[in-house]
Design goal:
- With 658 residues, the protein is of the alpha+beta class.
- The chain has 4 domains: 2-190, no CATH class; 196-310, no CATH class; 326-356 and 394-552, no CATH class; 567-656, no CATH class.
- The chain is 40% helix and 24% strand.
- The chain contains 19 helices and 17 strands.
- The strands form 2 sheets. The chain has a 15-stranded mixed β-sheet that branches.
- α1 packs across α9 and α2 runs parallel beside α4 (57-71).
- It is elongated.
- The N and C termini lie far apart (108 Å).
């Protein structure tokens, strides 16, 4: 009954074709807006236009509901219509809109928004013409009947007919004839009451914003940070001082998306300079961002919640050589480390902008032949944007971020200093170098990332890292070394100075890592232990950062153990010789001539690189063999035997005893 009365009011009221057409167009355009997050300015503007323009509000509401239902199955059509408009003929026009003050909030860079508005105008005009034609035809018919039909005049004057019409179609305007209705084509295009309403509403919103600016900004900032972080973010409060152009955030807590029981960063306060003139262009630029009283790795009182999917770990590259391993082959908690590296890789890819430079991908054909062709990802109909229309500056930029004296659990006596430069939502629009550096207060830890910029040329990205003084036992406990690790005690210094590149839109690293072990004890099979001043172990990492190939230079490590084994063996031989000759060897022999008793080729011929084999295993003879050696030269005169000759003879027998 409500619907029929509203329709009757349109037919028998003062509605004009202009009002009906505008109601259909505005209602359809509102129905084709995907959401407030994409186009807040457009939704507000269309609502205000509907209130100010003297369109039929009832018809606009009905058309808007129908348009929203129709828009859902037509989302793909709206998306591809938007790609045609934004990427082809009207690109220049929309580029101006997207980068203009106020209009930047209309969300016209979203393909579905622009395409949807185009479809809304077309369908709204079509619906408006049909409705207007139907109303005009109905009024013309009623005007003819009103003039020429006595039967119509008789029935229309009866009380019960007029009562029934009032119940079903409403009262209408009984003072005017149907010819008077037909004479109205446009009417008053502006609703004066609507203008008054907009002014009052604007004043009310301004007053409310003075009281609720903080909570609104806090909720918006928290939601955006959670989207970027991928896990819970807590913000106690956020305020903008427009006069001082200053942003202040208090109680910032960012959860670790890879370990929800701990926080990635906590800060009592965040202060930053904000460019308020860019806000009207939907741009946010923060400079001199400073985190006060920041900490990392603190345990949470309750577990955080993931926002969005976990980062996907990449597949490793095919091995170049048979001994190329992966993290899983060496690291005990490899799954946890790969997830952390995947999150780090995701952040670096976003900060460097390599995802925006994805070229053609290699597609594998059924016959095994590889062909280069474009493999387009499935479009996100609601959130894909024409990023190439954004000019001059990105939507969000951090000129410089400083976090000084950050407390971390793994450095008890030190703090970290973090400095980031020129990070943004659209890195390809940033003309300056993009850099991240982390250093500890006493020089134990350092990280440096070069994320691209004019000084590095096109496609050059660098990464350097060092960590000094890691306990050997602690490191080896996280590596798959078996029950008896070859090294005990001492410290490890790790460092790398490598680079990375974009390969098919992913971060691929090439990191030559130097592992320097100092002051450790090495266990040599069948020869015992020996103290080493230093040991250098070269390691190479290559492939995706979150799942790289690991190549350890086992030959260098084995050769080092071989030399250490020779040193231990020399000491044992010296001790045995001294026992056999019944006295001490001359000092000159120990310091100079005994060094040549172990031939170079003796170990090389019998050395087995797969284990510490060769001459390091089984070289020491049994006691019976030592006794046999002692009496091998009984036919010689004891006074003629020289210590050097007996030592050489003993060593020869030691080698032959294998």
């Amino acid at each position: 009954m409500f619907l029929t009365r509203k329709i009757g009011k349109i037919l028998r009221g003062n509605s004009t074709p202009f009002q009906l057409i505008m109601a259909c167009v505005l209602g359809t355009m509102l129905g084709f807006v995907p959401g407030f997050s994409q186009a807040p300015g457009l939704l507000i503007a269309l609502t205000f236009a509907l209130i100010v323009i003297n369109a039929n509000l009832v018809l606009a509401a009905l058309v808007g509901v129908v348009a929203k239902l129709v828009a859902l199955p037509l989302v793909p059509l709206a998306y591809y219509t938007g790609t045609f408009l934004l990427d082809e003929p009207a690109q220049g026009l929309f580029k101006t809109f997207v980068n203009s003050p106020v209009l930047a909030f209309f969300g016209l860079e979203y393909y579905t928004v622009t395409g949807g508005q185009f479809l809304g105008v077309v369908l709204g005009l079509l619906a408006g013409v049909l409705v207007s034609f139907g109303m005009t035809s109905f009024r013309k018919k009623m005007a003819v009947l009103e003039k020429s039909s006595e039967k119509f005049q008789t029935y229309s004057s009866k009380f019960w007919v007029r009562a029934l019409v009032w119940i079903i179609l409403g009262g209408g305007d009984s003072k005017e004839s149907w010819d008077d209705f037909l004479a109205k084509k446009v009417g008053n295009p502006i609703r004066l009451l609507g203008i008054v309403f907009i002014v009052l509403l604007g004043s009310l919103l301004y007053v409310l914003s003075m009281f609720f600016q903080g909570p609104i900004l806090t909720a918006t900032l928290q939601a955006e940070l959670e989207r970027i972080n991928g896990a819970t973010v807590e913000v106690k409060g956020a305020e903008v001082d427009f006069k001082a152009s200053r942003l202040t955030v208090t109680g910032l807590v960012v959860a670790d998306a890879t370990n929800l029981e701990y926080d990635l960063i906590r800060a009592e306060k965040l202060e930053a300079d904000i460019d308020t003139t860019d806000l009207l262009r939907k741009r946010v630029r923060l400079d001199k961002v400073h985190l006060v009283d920041a900490t990392h790795g603190e345990k949470r009182a309750y577990q955080a919640v993931l926002v969005g999917p976990r980062p996907k770990v990449s597949d490793p590259l095919p091995p170049v050589e048979p001994d190329d391993k992966t993290i899983e082959d060496y690291v005990v908690r490899s799954a946890e480390w790969k997830e952390k590296l995947a999150k780090l890789k995701e952040w670096i890819e976003q900060a460097s902008g390599i995802k925006d430079k994805v070229g053609d991908q290699i597609a594998q054909l059924p016959d095994g032949v590889k062909e280069e062709k474009a493999v387009l990802p499935k479009p996100d109909y609601f959130y894909d944007r024409a990023l190439h229309l954004l000019e001059e500056s990105p939507s969000f930029t951090v000129g410089e971020l400083l976090a000084e004296e950050v407390h971390v659990p793994f450095l008890e006596t030190e703090t970290l200093n973090i400095r980031c430069k020129n990070l943004s939502s659209h890195p390809h629009l940033v003309k300056e170098d993009k850099e991240v550096s982390i250093s500890s207060s006493k020089g134990t830890l350092g990280v440096s990332l070069f994320l691209g910029g004019p000084s590095g040329g096109d496609g050059r990205y660098e990464i350097s890292f060092f960590y000094k003084g890691l306990p050997v036992d602690e490191v080896l406990s996280g590596i798959k070394m078996g029950d008896n690790p070859p090294l005990q005690g001492g410290t490890i210094d790790m460092s790398t100075d490598g680079n990375w590149k974009s390969q098919e839109g992913e971060m691929f690293v090439h990191l030559p890592v130097t592992v320097l072990v100092k002051g450790t004890t090495v266990a040599i099979p069948k020869l015992g232990q020996t103290q080493l001043d230093s040991l250098i172990l070269p390691v190479s990492l290559f492939g995706p950062l979150d799942n790289p190939r690991v190549k350890v230079n086992t030959e260098a490590f084995s050769n080092f153990l071989l030399e250490a084994g020779k040193s231990v063996l020399q000491k044992k031989i010296t001790s045995e010789i001294q026992k056999q000759i019944g006295g001490n060897l001359p000092a000159t022999l120990l310091n100079e001539r005994l060094q040549g008793l172990i031939p170079r080729d003796a170990g090389e011929k019998s050395f087995d690189a797969n284990g510490v084999g060769g001459i390091l295993q089984g070289l020491l003879p049994l006691p019976s063999e030592i006794q046999k050696t002692k009496y091998d030269h009984t036919d010689q005169k004891e006074e003629e035997a020289k210590p050097e000759d007996e030592a050489k003879s003993l060593f020869k027998n030691l080698l032959n005893s294998r």
